[in-house]
From TrEMBL:
GO terms for biological process: fatty acid beta-oxidation using acyl-CoA oxidase; lipid homeostasis. One of its GO terms (molecular function) is FAD binding. Residues 264-396 form the Acyl-CoA oxidase C-alpha1 domain. This is Acyl-CoA oxidase C-alpha1 domain-containing protein.
Length: 559
């Protein structure tokens, strides 16, 4: 879909998007925010794009430009999906919100989605931040104790751009808790924090582009009456009201996963080009390309097959998620399945490609470690993947929800999915005291994620087969998934261990001769800043580094 924004290739080539090695944390953060602002100007997403989940909304998540600076992507994802997406449904009845929305869309004001607290992550519905209504209709926003500080959203002044927070807090009216509401709260003017708002900058996360994550607290901060979104009335169903308020988190579970598609393509390109040019000494001083070794080939070929299979799956996920005929439980299922598949495949693939690039793969300037950090962060952000899988698998086993049926029920991956479902359904009646018991916790919870992943594998295969994905690539994808749970296929007499090995070997042999062509088709070079892919890139990289020389006569003294 990135053809929708053709100008991003020129943006990637602009000076703003070129790497600056050795920059301080603050300088790197400033640059990430400036990049996010530049991307926003290029995309010009509208409120309707974000609110209705238009093709343009989904497309920006899959644009390879996002792989250059993952922090800039996070800034946009928070701004557009979580903040603009949450406020958008309220604008029809609140024309006073329109000027704010215009500034948010253009990133003239930065925004944060402030839900979780230090002591309340997965149980965010139990948050403690309060907004107490005053006699004149205004509110007092307050953090009652250190554990109730908002955890993670970046709130410090930066880039000379004002910042607001969409703060989730308990609405207190006449000493009555009326449930959680969203409040638009000024945080800083781009240079100085607002009165009563404290931001504690957390140390940076390692292994990737990181934001200025913080702990944020509010000390009796006065808010005008129009700071609150929604009604003062107490909801009849507090849980449903809360879930509706944070519905964009569910959208984010899908949309944030999509950036892994261009990330995987970039990772393949980096590792593939490096492996084709890198050589080691052989007999009679002959140089042997490392791509000649099967151990070097397989991670690259498997990830190549994976990216090809995921492309049509992504299209199908978006279509199903946006289908108005599907209810909330259907969309939650699609979100959990797609995220589970992207995370599992992404973690395995990127880690193996880093390893095959040796020491070069560990350096941030070669981009792979940043992608690895993003995959790990993604497993937690917008809904912890393990929790999403436990919830979906439990609902599925209890018969409270369903997943799209297999379109090719005779395939190996469909039979694996059906086998795991039957196995877990047979176990369920044997567990005393139901799905909230200690036994269910011990036996079934660890089985939930593999079950959801198996459903996802089958859906990826179905989508790829129906879309006409290259047969050799699809066979290699299938072989790779079979190797994730080989004992099941052996136990059920479908394949022997040697047949599983042969299945992979035949598929890899078919793809390998076309590796160079497949890499060139990925076309991520303009978005690639890593110096490891060519000798010329490496020389340019060295020219930017600090060099130490001297004329010291230091000697080790003899005792």
């Amino acid at each position: 879909m990135h053809h929708i924004f053709p100008g991003t290739a020129s943006l990637a080539s602009s000076p703003l998007f070129q790497p600056i090695y050795g920059a301080s944390r603050l300088a790197a953060l400033e640059r990430s925010y400036q990049r996010a602002i530049a991307i926003a100007k290029q995309y010009r997403l509208t409120m309707a794009d974000i609110h209705t989940l238009s093709e343009r909304f989904w497309a920006y998540h899959m644009n390879p430009l996002m792989t250059i600076d993952i922090a800039a992507y996070y800034i946009l994802a928070i701004q557009y999906n979580l903040v603009v997406g949450t406020i958008a449904p309220f604008v029809d009845g609140r024309p006073d919100l329109e000027p704010l929305m215009e500034k948010l869309l253009n990133l003239e004001i930065l925004a944060d989605f402030m839900l979780t607290e230090l002591d309340h992550g997965l149980d965010a519905k139990n948050l403690e931040t309060t907004a107490t209504r005053q006699l004149d209709g205004s509110f007092i926003l307050h953090t009652p104790r250190p554990g109730a500080a908002k955890f993670m959203p970046p709130t410090m002044p930066i880039a000379n751009v004002p910042r607001v927070g969409l703060v989730m807090a308990k609405l207190i009216v006449d000493n009555e808790d009326r449930g959680i509401r969203a409040f638009v709260v000024p945080l800083n003017d781009g240079k100085t924090m607002c009165r009563g708002v404290t931001s504690v900058l957390l140390p940076p996360m390692k292994g990737g582009d990181a934001l200025d994550h913080a702990l944020t607290s509010f000390n009796t901060v006065p808010l005008p009456a129009d700071a609150m979104l929604g009604s003062l009335a107490k909801p009849a169903q507090m849980r449903q009201h809360f879930l509706a308020l944070i519905h964009r988190v569910g959208v984010g579970a899908v949309s944030a996963s999509l950036v892994l598609l261009p990330s995987l393509k970039l990772a393949i390109y980096l590792a593939g080009k490096y492996s084709l040019r890198r050589a080691i000494g052989g007999p009679k001083d002959n140089r042997i390309p490392i791509i000649s070794f099967r151990t070097q080939q397989l991670p690259i070929l498997h990830t190549l097959a994976l990216s090809a299979a995921l492309q049509p799956f992504t299209t199908e996920v978006i279509s199903r998620f946006c289908d108005s005929a599907n209810g909330p439980s259907d969309r939650q299922a699609i979100a959990a399945i797609s995220k589970a598949v992207f995370i599992q495949h992404g973690q395995k693939s990127v880690a193996s490609l880093i390893e095959r690039c040796g020491a070069q793969g560990l350096f941030e300037h070669n981009q792979l470690s940043n992608l690895d950090g993003h995959v790990r962060a993604l497993s937690i952000m917008e809904g912890d993947i393990l929790v999403l899988c436990i919830r979906l698998a439990t609902e599925l086993l209890l018969g409270r929800c369903s997943v799209p049926p297999a379109r090719h029920s005779g395939s190996l991956l469909a039979r694996h999915e059906a086998g795991l479902l039957a196995e877990n359904r047979d176990l369920l009646p044997l567990i005393p005291h139901g799905h909230r018991s200690k036994t269910y916790n011990h036996i079934m919870l660890p089985r939930c994620r593999p079950l959801v992943e198996a459903i996802g594998h089958r859906m990826v295969y179905d989508a790829a087969l129906d879309a006409g994905v290259d047969r050799d690539l699809l066979s290699l994808y299938e072989a790779g998934v079979v190797q994730l749970d080989p004992s099941w296929y052996v136990e059920h007499g479908l394949l022997s261990r040697m047949e599983i090995v042969s299945m992979e070997a035949q598929a890899a042999d078919a793809v390998l001769p076309r590796l160079g062509d497949f890499l060139d088709r990925l076309e991520p070079e303009v978005y690639c800043t890593a110096p490891l892919i060519s000798a010329s890139r490496w020389r340019e990289f060295l020219d930017q580094l600090t060099v130490y020389r001297g004329e010291s006569d230091y000697r080790i003294s003899k005792l």
